[in-house]
Design brief:
The protein has 4 helices and 35 strands. The protein is mainly beta and 478 residues long. The protein has a single domain, classed as 6 Propeller (Neuraminidase), CATH 2.120.10. The strands form 9 sheets. Strands 2, 30, 31, 32, 33 and 34 form a 6-stranded antiparallel sheet that branches. A 5-stranded antiparallel sheet has the order 1-7-6-3-35, with no helix packed on it. Strands 8-9-10-11 form a 4-stranded antiparallel sheet, with no helix packed on it. A hairpin with a 4-residue loop joins β32 and β33. The termini are far apart. The N terminus is likely disordered.
Length: 478
């Protein structure tokens, strides 16, 4: 009789960062492991992401469900101080008291009997992005109100309505800041008798000063948008959410989303001055999480880039990340679109690079304008894409159509690259990324010369403990 050994699943190295809740640490001087901090690097790096994906041995249902934790690294006088703290949301505090999951979320249903679930259908996990205002930091999530934190200590102040009291504030995780006026543009999708796309314009302080609502044809999830010259642009993928299973606590949001390619992708273009709809059209089918940037060319067309997927299997892969058992292949690549803003018609689309990538960002001063460099997280050429997360960072040069990537060892995993202009030399800039070391279960902050990504980092800083791979960050100058 033959004996078949049980199949052993070898989880990827990056999973160790997510396997257990990340420990907080107070303000701590960070050791320089190599190189030196550039003297013109003066300000604070903030990063947000899921710090906890497990309670009492039970895993979260999706990577998006982890409780948000913020890393701040403050640079001054060629030294750095780091602090890492969880956002003290109402849901986080309630679940901490009983040490178990209570609430539903993107990939989870609430605990308890069916008739008890409607009061806790969703938890604002404040885990996706950050927005630095003059007097506070906002921790942002996909579908709810921001949480305000102290800029230095990261102590949670509380929810922040941004002075907006017209309807409940639903504020997405991808606001756009005008580099000249400092005004902030954002959106949120509200669910009711009619699904509405809410647009917000805020002043530099974050206070909402302009608002509009536009009816959407169906209940849909929207993650990101573009601020392009005088326009705000949305590309809404062919998704449809079935609300009843969610409302009765029978299914999560993620499990209630249907991919309907026959609907096509819908492009909506808004006037940035008055937040009114200019055009709407149906074009070819794709899915995207993130845009890079866009501008209006000499022919008055919108030129923009985004990371484009052929379908919605990326959502299944991201759900699998929470377990470390990734088996779904989801490849997104950088594309360029040409859109007529008057009609919303897609004039042209082309793939710019064939490497799988994510998290496209540009220099803050170039947002909404013609730009040259897009920075990204990039999969390594030999990566097994159904298992690995991005393994390096890169810079795509739109002028030469070339991609330059950093040489990062296989056991190291970078976060979204953040571009920072030097305080003393405006022609010099730096790229900051948080690196997770899967072999040693440790994290570091790496600083690159933005023109020399394929060289060694100019500085490596040690962090007190491992920081799980997260989503989005920002830079605030001192």
């Amino acid at each position: 009789m033959s004996i078949t050994s049980p199949q052993v699943t070898i989880k990827p190295l990056w999973y160790k960062a997510l396997a257990r809740p990340a420990p907080e640490f107070p303000s701590t001087s960070l050791p320089i492991l190599s190189g030196a901090i550039p003297p013109g690097l003066c300000g604070t790096l903030y990063r947000n992401g899921p710090g906890r994906l497990e309670r009492a041995g039970t895993r979260a249902g999706h990577w998006f469900d982890g409780d948000g934790a913020i890393l701040a690294v403050k640079f001054a006088d060629r030294a750095a101080i780091g602090v890492y703290r969880y956002v003290q949301t109402e849901g986080y505090q309630a679940e901490s008291q009983v040490n178990r999951w209570l609430y539903g979320n993107y990939g989870m249903i609430p605990s308890g009997k069916i008739w008890e679930r409607r009061s806790k259908l969703v938890k604002n996990v404040a885990n996706t992005a950050v927005l630095a205002l003059p007097d506070r930091l906002l921790a942002l999530w996909e579908g709810g109100i921001p949480h305000a934190l102290d800029l230095d200590s990261l102590e949670t102040i509380g929810t922040d309505s941004l002075g907006f009291n017209s309807v409940p504030l639903i504020y997405s995780a991808h606001p756009k800041v005008d580099p000249i006026s400092g005004h902030i543009y954002n959106f949120g999708v509200s669910i009711g008798a009619q699904t509405q796309l809410n647009l917000y314009e805020s002043d530099r302080s974050g206070k909402v000063i302009n608002y509009s609502q536009t009816k959407l044809p169906r209940l849909i999830t929207v993650h990101d948008f573009l601020m392009v010259g005088k326009y705000l642009v949305f590309c809404m993928p062919p998704l449809e959410i079935q609300p009843l299973p969610i409302l009765f606590g029978l299914a999560s949001y993620s499990d209630s989303i249907r991919w309907k390619p026959e609907l096509g992708t819908q492009i909506l273009v808004f006037d940035r001055d008055n937040l009114t709809l200019i055009s709407r059209s149906i074009v070819e089918t794709w899915f995207q999480w993130h845009f890079g940037n866009g501008y209006v060319d000499a022919n008055s067309n919108i030129i923009c880039d985004l990371v484009r997927y052929p379908d919605f299997t990326t959502n299944q892969f991201l759900a699998e990340v929470a377990t470390g058992k990734t088996k779904t292949e989801a490849i997104g690549t950088l594309w360029q679109l040409i859109i007529n803003p008057t009609t919303g018609k897609l004039i042209g689309s082309e793939q710019l690079i064939d490497r799988s990538c994510e998290f496209p960002v540009v220099e803050q001063s170039q947002v909404g304008k013609e730009w040259r460099y897009t920075y990204l997280g990039v999969h390594k050429p030999d990566a097994i894409l159904h298992q690995e997360l991005v393994g390096t960072i890169g810079r795509f040069d739109r002028q030469t159509q070339t991609l330059t990537t950093a040489e990062i060892d296989k056991h190291l995993y970078p976060s979204e690259p953040i571009h920072v202009v030097d305080r003393f030399d405006l022609n010099q800039s730096w790229i900051l990324t948080v690196i997770y070391d899967g072999e040693n279960h440790q994290s570091e902050v790496w600083i690159y010369d933005s023109d020399k990504l394929d060289d060694f980092p100019v500085c490596r800083l040690g962090l007190p403990s491992a920081i799980p791979m997260g989503f989005h960050g920002t830079w605030r100058h001192n």
